[in-house]
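[recover] target loaded
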């Protein structure tokens, strides 16, 4: 709840959010990201989640589809092997939640109204790759997630261009 509130407060601010969420595997980072993405959609924007592998992107996609079961919201999976019919859907904002891989940063991919970029395992992407996805929107909010903070990430938070939140507890019933 605390981390979600920090993110939503940042998203409501006049300047774009640039926040890292760090927490152990299974602590709820994906739920926090989904709540943030739904906030962007509620405000009329598209939100995208970029994962470093097709397998992880597909897992995120399946989890999000399951969690949103019964809600009329077009969620799209966009990966290197599943992009042929979906580029138009992103461009025309027919899909409001887009989960994908590096395929999202291809030059041919454009968004109608990208308001939130979520990057999972941000250390697996280069600076230019993350910047390329961000440029597909008009100063979108950016949320990066990691289970393993690395020195470069810590330096980014120390030198002021990345706020951070730590999920330091596990969901009820989850074993340490």
């Amino acid at each position: 709840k605390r981390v979600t509130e920090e993110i939503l407060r940042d998203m409501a601010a006049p300047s774009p959010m640039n926040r890292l969420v760090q927490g152990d595997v299974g602590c709820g980072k994906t739920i926090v990201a989904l709540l943030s993405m739904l906030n962007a959609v509620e405000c009329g924007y598209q939100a995208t989640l970029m994962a470093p592998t097709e397998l992880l992107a597909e897992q995120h996609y399946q989890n999000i589809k399951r969690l949103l079961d019964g809600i009329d919201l077009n969620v799209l999976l966009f990966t290197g092997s599943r992009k042929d019919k979906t580029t138009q859907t992103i461009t025309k904002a027919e899909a409001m939640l887009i989960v994908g891989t590096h395929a999202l940063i291809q030059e041919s991919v454009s968004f109608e109204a990208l308001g939130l970029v979520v990057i999972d395992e941000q250390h697996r992407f280069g600076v230019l790759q993350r910047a390329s996805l961000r440029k597909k929107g008009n100063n979108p909010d950016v949320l990066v997630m990691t289970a393993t903070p690395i020195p470069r990430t810590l330096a980014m938070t120390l030198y002021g261009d990345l706020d951070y939140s730590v999920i330091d507890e596990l969901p009820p019933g989850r074993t340490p």
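[recover] notes: The radius of gyration is 15 Å.
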